[in-house]
Design brief:
Blueprint lengths: L1 H14 L1 H13 L8 H13 L3 E5 L2 E11 L3 E7 L28 H20 L5 E8 L7 H7 L8 E8 L3 E2 L6 E10 L15 H15 L8 E8 L10 E10 L2 H22 L2 E10 L6 H14 L6 H11 L4 H7 L35 H7 L2 E7 L10 H7 L2 H23 L1 H15 L9
Parallel strand pairs: 3-4, 3-5, 5-11
Antiparallel strand pairs: 1-2, 2-4, 6-11, 7-9, 7-10, 8-9
Helix pairs in contact: 1-4, 1-13, 2-4, 4-13, 6-7, 8-13, 13-14
Length: 461
């Protein structure tokens, strides 16, 4: 039955790929920023309703929803996203050609991410309907991943309660299960209030909020030597005053603090707050801060990731043609080989994978020689409370970064869509394995419990 089920799942996704392509293309052509994804979420809800899913909205989160089909356990979640990035408008082209100057674009491929996950749940739903599988399948429409808050708020509101395990995927430049963590992250804005004065006539009457921001930044730059390995601190001054001849009475700086473990991030954050207080003391200003968002590091569940890996190899890459290879080659030419090799430094040392432009195979040792992926995802919070597995699929050429015009062009291309089909089929086949073996969930939950230990998860926001 297992092989017959998987054959059915893969063939069914092929049958509906025209519908999936239509959804993905429409979302790609109508990019929306975080918490404004009305078009994308409504489009996905309409599709899922048509396929027999019940839809539940989330109070206070207009563009979030959960679609469900089936009954009883296991209850398996597949996570989707659909928010775009500001300033990345781009045609499906091998040269930089914005559709709208300064407009938004899907430079992280979320038009594919959500659509691929929908393909997986619709296919599994058909097997439940045919009584070949038992359980409940849920699609999570998650807004604002780029804001690193959507899934965190959904957890906080209780919408992940009762879930047995979760699967997801993300567009990237390689086809591989993700077996290492991402970075935990705090996003914090520090604000200073001072006293304005004429900068030439009476500067001694002023208390510069901008001076406080600059002193804080200096202190944090000296702190870098004394923080944990793999911690990252980045900042941007978002308000530094209005005119140079006025001592600024208000200034703001926005910090990201990242680390391999949340306890490291909290430690560094505490020290940065002390530096911020010191800057206020030195300048006679008043400091306050606001935690905008925060996410945990991702915990890959080995039991589920092994299953996902097996199914990625079973499914295999999806029939790239000469046009796909040509498109990848031309995009790769827009980035120097040194920069591409640097981006691809996460890859294993087993072979020089950067010699190819389009990753047309599935590998399982790709990330294993590194101890983390240097980015942050809000799926990390999900992985602390539910056994979770995810994979990456080669939507754009090897060595191309996400959040670029090249990745946006790829996300709207035939090449990118074929990578999405690999994800969709692999996740659906993995859900089949979990639903047919009741011991898998128990093993996955035990692994998570052993990994987390006595640590109690609490949302940052």
């Amino acid at each position: 039955m297992d092989n017959l089920n998987k054959k059915f799942l893969m063939e069914y996704i092929d049958e509906i790929q025209g519908e999936l392509r239509d959804i993905s293309d429409k979302i790609w052509k109508n990019p929306e920023l975080q918490y404004k994804e009305y078009y994308a979420s409504n489009l996905q809800k309409e599709c899922l309703k048509k396929h027999g899913f019940s839809i539940e909205g989330l109070e206070g989160m207009d563009t979030a929803f959960v679609a469900s089909y089936g009954e009883g356990r296991p209850v398996i979640a597949v996570l989707g996203e659909y928010d775009a990035l500001d300033g990345l408008s781009q045609k499906v082209s091998t040269t930089k050609e914005p559709i709208v100057d300064g407009g938004a674009g899907h430079g992280c491929g979320h038009n594919l991410l959500g659509t691929g996950s929908i393909g997986a749940v619709i296919a599994v739903k058909e097997l439940i309907k045919l009584k070949k599988l038992k359980g409940t399948i849920k699609y999570y429409g998650c807004p604002a991943e780029e804001d690193l808050s959507g899934k965190v708020l959904m957890i906080k509101k209780g919408f992940f309660d009762g879930i047995d395990c979760a699967f997801s995927w993300h567009p990237f430049d390689i086809n591989t299960p993700i077996r290492i963590p991402t970075l935990a992250n705090y996003s914090v804005k520090f604000r200073y209030n001072g006293i304005s004065a004429h900068a030439a006539q009476a500067p001694y009457n002023g208390r510069s909020a901008l001076d406080a921001v600059e002193l804080m930044n200096i202190g944090c730059n000296y702190l870098r030597e004394h923080i944990f390995d793999n911690c990252r601190v980045h900042y941007v001054t978002t308000n530094g005053g209005k005119m140079p001849n006025i001592v600024p009475d208000f200034a703001e700086v926005w910090y990201y603090i990242r680390g391999v473990k949340m306890e490291h991030v909290r430690d560094v954050f505490g020290r940065i707050v002390d530096i911020a207080k010191g800057a206020a003391l030195m300048t006679g200003t008043i400091m306050e801060y606001d935690i905008i968002s925060g996410v945990y590091d991702y915990i890959p569940n080995t039991i589920l990731t092994d299953i996902l890996s097996q199914n990625m190899k079973l499914v295999g890459v999806q029939n790239y043609n000469e046009d796909d290879y040509y498109f990848a080659d031309k995009l790769a030419e827009t980035v120097s080989i040194d920069k591409r090799s640097s981006v691809s430094s996460v890859l294993s040392g087993n072979k020089d994978i950067t010699k190819m432009n389009l990753h047309d195979e599935v590998t399982d040792d790709t990330f294993t020689h590194n101890n983390c992926i240097s980015l942050s995802l809000d799926i990390g919070d999900v992985s602390y409370i539910i056994p979770t597995a995810q994979c990456s699929c080669s939507v754009w050429p090897i060595g191309i970064s996400a959040h670029t015009w090249q990745s946006c062009a790829s996300a709207g291309s035939d090449m990118g869509f074929k990578a999405m089909l690999l994800a969709s089929k692999s996740i659906s086949c993995s859900i089949n394995d979990v639903m047919l073996d009741e011991l898998v969930i128990n093993k996955a939950k035990k692994e998570l419990k052993d990994t987390v230990g006595s640590f109690e998860y609490t949302p940052i926001i």
